[in-house]
Amino acid sequence: MDVTVRSFAKINLGLRIGAFRHDGFHELRTVYQTIALHDIIRVQVGRGSGIEIRCEDPRVPKDDSNTCYRIVDRAMLALQARGRVVIEIEKRLAVQGGLGGASGNAVATLLALERALKRKLPSPERLEIAADVGSDLPLFLVGGTILGVGHGEEVYPLQDLPSIPCVIATPEIGVSTPKAFADWDALIGRDLVVPTGGAVGTKLTLLPASDRISEFGRVLSAWLGGLSQSKNKQDKLKSGRALSGVPVSKGRGRAETLLLDLVRTGIENDFERVVFPKYPELREVKGVLERAGAVYASLSGSGSTIYGLFASREAAVKAAARLREDGTPAVATITLTRQQYWNKIFD
Fold it and tell me: For 258-310, what is each residue's pLDDT tens digit?
């Protein structure tokens, strides 16, 4: 039986890097958000044995280092299933661009495999297998707006942001995630703390790792509090005032107001501190998005993808066109709520 599914991408709404853990990972806090850009995965189960990966993109591994291969290997054993599994990956997303493409491919493959076999893993076992294969995989078993903790593998569904127009820019630059983490470790190893006093010559420093993680939690809690109030008190938005008490123009939609509340929290991606100095062209892409009217723009993961969230589809389309004119691949799309995500996977 052949099964075809969509494998959606993600962006990070803020990413805070914490302390180095005993298991070799950094403690992380991030908010994942699924978006409509996707690859196509086709899974076929037939007679025989083994796992075959087919993909025309030469950058995609076709051996047991591929996340799709690894998750099928684990799932077939857990389901006590037999057969030859052929996985065809049609790449539309940037490879190693910070969009979670390989992780999304693996989860989409798992879902297609279950449908092809007409068997289903229990949800806890699904999550356990996904987390073992890779840190970003579990988020794709949730979809929508998701809190990621631990080293990103521990996920919790948050109240969804409404679907928002966005631009995904994928400069043809390779950013190594391990190198980005190493550069971060080198950065915080210097004599850096929060600015004290503001006097001339005062050193700028970063908060200690544990405090930075706690600060992210406080920022996120404040934003989520506003998100909840926004859903329950639409009359405040209709009257032209944001829930934070800051005046906004009449006619502004709920999505734009929530984005402005997000911006006011100061949420950011820590990787920008080490990636932008090495790749200033990425900082420039972010600047183009902001000048084009993005309410919020950021690096996704460790990059090199840069995204911008916009108040209207028209503004997003114009911003993407401007980037393409400058030679940067870019496309306008939308974020997906949890319901949209699951409705479209097999659609």
Answer: 767 777 777 889 999 999 999 999 999 999 999 999 999 999 999 899 999 99
Task: Give 282: exposed, middle or buried? Use CB within 10 Å, 0-12, 13-18, 19+.
Answer: buried
What number of CA atoms fall less than 13 Å from residue 249's CA on the CB side? 4
Cα(first)–Cα(last) distance of the chain, in Å?
17
Residues 198 and 296 in one domain: yes
For 184, the token pair is 């971060």
Question: DSSP code of 243?
Answer: T
Residues 206 and 296 in one domain: yes
Return the DSSP state at 6: E
Active-site residue, selected from the candidate residues 23, 120, 136, 236: 136
Q: Are residues 261 and 228 in the same domain?
A: yes
Residues 175, 307: one domain? yes
Percent of the chain scoring above 70 in pLDDT: 84
Identify whether 10 is a catalytic site residue: yes
Task: Please give the pLDDT value at position 326.
Answer: 92
- Three-state secondary structure of 142-196: CCCEEEEECCCCEEEECCCCCCCEEEEECCCCCCCHHHHHHHHHHHHCCCCCCCC
Phi, psi of 101, deg, nearest 5: -60, -50
- Encoding tokens for residue 330? 């870019």
Per the structure, the complete domain to which residue 77 belongs is given by 2-158+340-345
List all residues 6 or more positions away from 144 whose beta carbon is below 8 Å from its beta carbon: 33, 34, 157, 158, 160, 336, 337, 338, 339, 340, 341
Structure tokens at 190: 């210097």
Pull the structure tokens for residue 188. Answer: 């915080």
What domain count does the chain have? 2
CA 302 distance to own-chain centroid: 10
169: Cα separation from own chain's centroid = 14
Whether residue 67 sits in one domain with residue 124: yes
CA distances 333 to 25, 99, 205, 252, 320, Å, are 32, 13, 37, 20, 10
